[in-house]
Description:
five-stranded parallel β-sheet; six-stranded mixed β-sheet; Rossmann fold
Amino acid sequence: MKTLQKISLFALVSILFISCKKEGQVQEEVIEHKKIVSLSGAITETLVALGQEEKIVGVDVTSTYPQYIKDKAKDLGHVKVISAENVIALQPTLVLASDKDLSPELITKLQTANIQVKIIHQEQSIEGTKQFIKDIATAIGSSVDYSSLIKDIDTNIAKMIQFESKPKVLFIYARGAGAIMVAGRNTPMEKMIEIAGGQNVVRDFEDFKPLTPESLIRYNPDYILLFDKGLKSIGGIEGLLKVQGIEQTIAGKNKQIISMDGAFLSGFGPRVGQAARELNQLLSKQ
């Protein structure tokens, strides 16, 4: 009788072991063969940093880093006008998007097509970016190691220069000489300027507003910050200095003009620590 009980117990353990093993193999296979559509530049960058680029089959127009991703995945255009049919045609098992732009209608259509949609919250801060990375890693598989990305952010932030007096910075968003805006409160640019140790000189409004000569003189920034493409669109530094009021500022007089890649500076992805440190160093050169 005891022998029979031992055999039965052994058989039960064996069945459970085989069952668990098969279940683990199935789950691993699902993760390994997952096809992902990323509808955010910061999410795409994070996926690549996590070593998942081979799984990305579609991206949105903001997914510009790394540059080669557009050669590997289909560009679906701007997230606000993306067709559900074009996404479904790629047969993804997972669609990742930030909580900023994806419409409820698109989400519903994708879910109706049995496609998992994961909305990732993105807070524009250092801790918010760390959580953003963790959430993406969790969405694609709990075995994905993101610790090196978090460590890189902390390392760069720890190496930044501490200013006795915060440099006054004005961010200008330019799309040609006829379309120049400045960043106010609660903008990604204000957040990045503050992380880098500076202060945004615009405190009297939120979001972006057109630049005027009067406001330039009133703000009188120590530095003017632009995206590379924005500075190029107005003719470089010489073109910027021709904008009325620029040469009357401290930044204009000293030609303290900084330009950086837009996705790098404002993406708040895995390179956020590098971007903050680079801006911090540029603000220290007086």
